[in-house]
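Please predict the structure of the following assembly.
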Amino acid sequence: MSQKNKGSNADLLNRREVLKGLATVPVLGLFFIKLWQKLRLDKLKKSNLLQDLIAENKAPSIVKEIGNNDHLRVGVVGYGGRGGHLTRGLGFATPGWTSNASERAKNNKLDKAFETFMSQTDLNCSLVGVCDLFDVRAELGIEASKNEIRSGGKAKETAVRYKHYTDLVTSKDIDAVIIATPDHWHSRVAIAAAKAGKHVYCEKGLTRTFDETIELYDTVKETGITFQLGHQNRQVEAYEQAKKIINQGLLGPINLVQLTTNRNSPGGAWVWGIDPKGNSKTIDWETFQEPSPNKIPFGEEALRRFFRWRCWYDYGTGLSGDLFSHDFDQINQIMGLGIPKYASSSGGIYYYKDGRDVPDVWNATLEYPDKDLTVLYSATLSSLNSRGNRIMGHDATMQIGGESNSGALGGFIVKADPYSTRYKDRLEKGVINSKYPIYSYAPGSKQIDGITSATSQYFANKGLLYTYRDGKRVDSTHLHVKDWLDSIRSKTLPSCNIEEALHEGVTCHMATESYLQGRRIEWDPVNRTLV
Amino acid sequence: MKIDLMKNDTYSESQLTGLVILRLLIGWHFLYEGISKIINPYWSSAAYLLDSKWILSSLAKTIVANSTILSFTDFINMWGLTLVGLSLLLGLFSRYGALVGMGFVLLYYLFAPPFIGLEYGRPGEGSYILVNKNLIEAFALYVLYLFPSSQYIGIDRLIHSSQSNSLGDK
């Protein structure tokens, strides 16, 4: 009896022990019930947003992978800042650049420029020709062709210097030509290269004048060469995602697009350094100014013009060809707009009164009556209040770049409009809120870059410096050059081919002509003229 | 002197209740912080680390600069927070859980202390000078370490009880 009592007391004690031991387990149960409820609500919310639209959580792999067995011999005409970047995209950097970049990476662990360069795909090509009117730059190009610090190691061939571009483009040792001269030389070099059967990669803006644009277009079509215009934004993954969203009509009717440029530094306003080695012996000034309407003798003014050529209409088209061209091509890539019916523009030289003749504040309006659309471009070189680009639909707005509520925006966000028809029910039910994005795209959100100067920050925000593939940072210029070489080998059209180039060239010249002539410009697509 | 861990004679009932509730609240917080990071494929400690100021900022940059170290740091955070949360909630090895948890939040404090003159990119959710919620949570965990409760309420009780039973058998 007493034994039995003892046993049941012990049982009771044990049961109490177990109860106290597991007393908090129900709290864990409650936790998981709450977690499940939260996840279910998140999922419901997400399905009401656009998140499920882009199913893939992963970035696409490095563009089209095609055999690059054919070794290509590339020549570069114009080895300035941009020429240097383009040849780095090919895989050739000067020893000065590689040692500087690796030094920077040592001092700033977040500076990934060297790592990005070294992990580029070897494009199986050689830089075999360099043509530049400034001896110092030409020599740098030749040094770059010999530099073995690159993925793929020593190149098959190295570069020789061509004094004149005609010798380079007609050389039998060259298969393809990169043109990174000032704009006033683009069409001459490109047309000569195309006529000699060389494939062409030409920097933007396409040309200096409207007539050059049409002539270049016709030559490329006649010769059938592979032509790529240097809008590397074509390789930016974010814009391909943006295109999907627009194509599905998720913004509703779009009647207004706003494109902007904001810069506020001398470098951003083309007040570039004048090389102390530049003089009448090292610079072929007469050849440089040959295609420009106004000629001046060599001297200090000529040096300024040689190194800061974007400030004068004699050599380029200022904001139009340099920066509006990028934003126009971005929106043409996303929305497939083509050439507008009308363009008008205005502006002035309000801040940089340094003798330039191109405006530093400039606004252009493009009209597409058949698409019920106006595209507004607004640029200033004296304020960094970054506005980003906006595609404004009746149902939602897509904001690309600029500042969002949570800081600088590298990718894009889509916000529903409070008076949207499409999202009316969901806005009323509260499942979507017009204050918060219904879709956001942040490229490489797990990646960190150390972007230094204000101008490189400007380009990075527009996706013009880097894009992401499989979560890895890649130089979009490298991808764009690769796209061109791949297209040459596979005889396909590159992403910014001559048709896209025509849209850019004509549109930019319509806007430029409007500023210069002080009137609205109309495009006549039948006669291919500006009215 | 042997302390009888089986008997609740160290704390009054209300003291024990208070300690257990504190343990559960902090455990709950840690567990959700951990799990929310595990289920979010885009989560990374990088943004927090990049905003780091004061003595640990260069260490933070070293971590962020190397993707392997960064992934490792992310992994430790996600699972560390989750395990500490489970330990405190269930009362399993809770003293160690409290100590490890204190280590975590003290590190968060030191990577971004609310000192005068340090400006942070991300907006704060409160107003702090020297003392912030991380510091308070760290010392709350220190209290939980000094005043353990899991040997009374928690799985640790069962472990102790089976250990003392086997001692008693001898």
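The interface with chain A takes residues 20, 24, 28, 31-32, 35, 39, 41-42, 44, 46, 50, 61-62, 64-66, 86, 89-91, 121, 152-158, 161 of chain B (CB under 8 Å). Helices of chain B lie at 13-38, 46-50, 57-65, 67-90, 94-111, 133-146, 155-169.
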